[in-house]
Amino acid sequence: MNKEYKIPQATTKRLPLYYRFLQNFAQEGKKRISSQELSDAMKIDPATIRRDFSYFGALGKKGYGYDVQHLLSFFSQTLDQDEATNVALIGVGNLGNAFLKYNFQKNHNTRIVVAFDSKAPYEGTDISGIPVFHPDRLEEMYEEYGAELAILTVSSRSAQTMTDRLAKMNAKGILNFTPIRLTVPDSMKLMNIDLSVELQALIYLVRNSES
Question: For 85-197, CATH number?
């Protein structure tokens, strides 16, 4: 069975975290770790870690634990860490500007190579070293800069329109920061991050833990 359909999305979201913490262990000189040690560092139940790892076969040995360098190599290949992925940012408001300044530079295999904003001039401008164009040039510049994925931080009213344009261009995926539930073709991957929903969930947890 194709891993894409076998591995739950919750597990997929944890893979970059595993890779980050394994890098930390390697920098500390650790040769091997147990699921409990990884659990203590990540604050994730060890049974969850073992279940996540089981989707990829035998990554460790009973009574030995996990070889840190082996896991690093495995997750590096799984996450394609050796090959950078070009990303387009669509919408350069407050959140978009923060993305441009951060731009995933350290310990990430993604980079924002081009951005689009309705206030940008048609001929383009530069923000934090990234070229920013008017959305009228989306199709042209998305291809020219070799973008594969898009981060969507536009207004709710234009979110689906921009998504439809990306779909026609055969964009591979969208990281959606708008509150709109987007409709995408089966060939396109979509991940939604609704900050207001996450905040409300946090408030609920805080208030219910106080009782």
Answer: 3.40.50.720
